[in-house]
Amino acid sequence: MCDAKKASFEPYTRYMDPNVVEMLAKRQRHLVPNDYITRIKKAANNCLKNGPFSVTYTDRIPPSGDVHDFMTQAPYWWPDSNAENPATAPYIRIDGKMNPECTELPNQKQLENMALCVSTLSLAYCYVEDSRYLKHAWDLLRVWFLDPQTRMNPNVNYGQIRPNCSEGGTFTGMMGTRGLVLVANSVLLIKTAEYEADMVQLKQWFTEYVNWISESELALRAKRARNNHGTFYYIQLVSCLYFLERYQEALDHLKEFFQQTMKRQINQEGDQPHESARATPMTYLVGNLEGLIYLAQIGDSLGFDGWGFHNQGIKRAADFILEKRCCWKYEPRLGMIVRTMIHKYGDQDGKYSQFLEGEDLGSANNLRAAGMSCLWTLPQSVRPA
């Protein structure tokens, strides 16, 4: 991920069930500490100062010649130092070493900033019903998706390009559009009669994007990947289908993922070999596990239980990370993962609680990891009616 701005109160990957958010905001408000309402209002007020954002706000034009095409550069690819001519040197992969050239292409950062603002504003609107949050969220959505002058074309044909290798993008390019998941997940929170026409147009954009995901060879290569790229392919597809209310299709793809793809990701020990082999293994182990959790959570909304698949693969992957965490750089997102494990599997041997007791909850990183999940997560004792 290239220079991606992240909200200070939530992890990048998290699922919000709109029905649960509505229950908490309207009927179970006492379950949410007032401090968290204050914090989400503060975050939303900051978002009012940001934007608009657009894929067209750049002087770098994709090979297609169309500035509306989303374009990023592969982050771990560098000019071959052994090439005779540096200007035409093919790019080679150096895992874990970020090429600063990728920050010169602003599309991913623009998308993520827009998505995080829309997500924050949507959540805040549910709790405080400030019309400014609703209006600004839709203003941002119009610029990115609907305005003919600034809209993004619904494809990722030029994601993670590799200079001097080919003109097109690669199957890894969909990692740059993960921000679309935040939009698809949170925009249902601001579905109002006032913006009904905009919602119709937005759904048309996502319908076209689903068509690209389902038919493009670049996207289908991501689907076949055995690592995090496969996971995030399904996250984007299922999230978009859920937003479009195509629930049976979303459910079919969820089953496909848990029955086929997930089995190739986690071994008997709970390791995710494709992730632990990376230059920064903890980042990728935790990142892919967050993706698995997301898919299981959206499965909950569809009446599908993904938590038990592959001999409780999600739990085994979390346990492996906890066991091996001293071998790698500490990852603050572990706190939220461990809380999720307690919520879904219990803590019979007390190891999860023991881990949480050892956390430095006063650190900025851990506050970020712990997040504000109480704004969209029901306690175990409460279930939607």
Spell the H/E element sequence: HHEEEHHEHHHHHHHHHHH
Q: What name goes with the CATH superfamily of the largest domain?
A: Chondroitin AC/alginate lyase
Under CATH, the topology of the largest domain is which? Answer: Glycosyltransferase
Q: What does the radius of gyration come to?
A: 21 Å
Largest sheet: 2 strands, parallel
Characteristics:
385 residues, mainly alpha, Glycosyltransferase, 2 domains, two-stranded parallel ribbon, two-stranded antiparallel ribbon, 15 helices, globular, disordered N terminus, disordered C terminus, lyase activity, Chondroitin_lyas
Topology of this protein?
Elements: H1 18-27, H2 34-47, E1 71-73, E2 77-79, E3 91-93, H3 107-128, H4 131-146, E4 158-161, H5 179-186, H6 196-215, H7 217-224, H8 228-243, H9 247-261, H10 273-276, H11 281-301, H12 309-324, H13 334-345, H14 351-357, H15 364-370
Parallel strand pairs: 1-4
Antiparallel strand pairs: 2-3
Helix pairs in contact: 2-3, 3-4, 3-5, 4-6, 5-8, 6-7, 6-8, 7-8, 8-9, 8-11, 11-12, 13-14
Explain what this protein looks like in three dimensions:
- It is a single chain.
- This protein is globular.
- The protein has two domains: 12-224, Alpha/alpha barrel (Glycosyltransferase), CATH 1.50.10.100; 257-362, no CATH class.
- It is mainly alpha-helical.
- It is 51% helix and 3% strand.
- The strands form two sheets. It has a two-stranded parallel ribbon with strand order 1-4. It has a two-stranded antiparallel ribbon with strand order 2-3.
- The protein is built from 15 helices and four strands.
- Residues 1-12, 362-370 and 381-385 have low confidence and may be disordered.
- Helix 7 packs across helix 8 and helix 13 (334-345) runs antiparallel to helix 14 (351-357).
